[in-house]
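Record 1 of the preview.
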Amino acid sequence: MKTALKFTGASMKMFFRNKSGVFWTLFLPLLIMIIFGSMNFENYGKSNIAIVDNAETKESKNLIKEMEKVDIISVKKMNEKRAMSKLKEGDFDLVMILPSDFLENPDVAVIQKEALIQGKKVSPSDLLPKTSTIKIYYNKGKEQQALAGTTVLKEMFNNINREITGAPSLFKIEEEAISAKNLKYIDFLIPGIVAMAIMQMGVFSIVFVLVQYRKKGIMKRLLVTPMKSIDFIAGQVLTRIFVSIMQVVVIVGVAVLVFDINVVGNYFLILLLVSLGSLLFISMGFAMSSFAKTEESAAPIANIVVFPMLFLSGVFFPIEAMPAWLQGISKYLPLTYLANGLRSVMTEGVKIAAIKSDVLGLLVWSIIMIIFAILFFRLNPEE
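->
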């Protein structure tokens, strides 16, 4: 243990003496955070609408199909309880509830019988669907998006009215503002930046450091000392975990000071996710380093793994914005589990039970990467 701790101290000194390494580790994530965080993304994009179809008729289903064709709105069908919960969480801009009598055709036989009893004639208007009350609940914290969605809905209902010649207003729309948790884009971004920084620390620093050690002959000199392989590996792992924790403190600290974000989650749970993520990507770095013989080959090998995850794991934008087939792949990527877990804890303050699938995903990927590292990593690549 003494040897491992001494090597950890030496590794820390070497890390902080490497100015380019410190830049890529600390300042690049901060730079990306500041650039993307300064962009007001939450004021752009589609209006997210949840549809509650209590009618489940041909007419209501056709309406939803037509809504799905409109470019400026994004429609998702779900039950009322879940829709209202998602609205209050800030996931939707508005919820529209179609009543069970939506465009319900009147009973002609009953109308004719009543008209006969009363001695009246049946008018064409008597045979039209009755007025349906459509409730719309909107997020009052996102009035711009809600207004865009409501405008589209009203226009669609007006078109339906016009298609029925001589029809009175068939729809009565009731709107109500709901207080919701309105997360800004920066709140979504910070956990993703933290996850990205942990991945880069684990993969790039390990791969490039080991390649440099071999190129400069440092590895050969270490091999002739009494140091054991486990001491070297433990020193590298402890150094990277410490730096990863430092990254999180710096990134979140700057985000709080500059963007006034509010971290509501348990810090010990955040530390657990950071540690698991660090272990996963450090193991990945050790496994990949065995295939990188030179600095020229190290970059392509690392990037071919890191860059797809960077853009497919919900670091900068929600996975839900991707095509369905791509979402099926993205949700199983290791960086996705880390980003989702951190985001749930930091922005929603959930307990560990709520992120057990993310923790399990990180554990499974960690075991896989450790196995690969054991199989392929060698201190001496000539062994």
